[in-house]
Amino acid sequence: MLVISFFIGHDVHVVDIDLTGTMTSYNISRVPLTPGILFYSNVVGYSLSGIHSTETSDGIMVDSVPPTSGTVIDGIGIV
Predict the structure, then answer these.
(1) Residue 42's beta-bridge partner residues?
(2) Fewer beta carbons within 10 angstroms: which end of the chain, N or C?
(3) How many other β-carbons are positioned within 10 Å of the β-carbon of residue 41?
(4) Cα–Cα distance between 45 and 76 in angstroms, integer?
(5) What is the mean pLDDT of residues 18-43?
(6) Cα-trace Rg, the chain
């Protein structure tokens, strides 16, 4: 599993571990992600015969700016 800084970019973080075929999630922590940059996760799966497939996420972006206060309009009235 890779975390990269652009779609076909360089590695920011590499997980060099074999994950079982029954795993549905894997937690990565302490990866230095710069706010405002789009990061992608690549997962490469290999079969026992050596065939592989790569899947890429649609990207995540770190937002370190706190929300501003305001009024919420829910479509029915003001809440």
Answers:
(1) 2, 56
(2) C
(3) 19
(4) 48
(5) 78
(6) 18
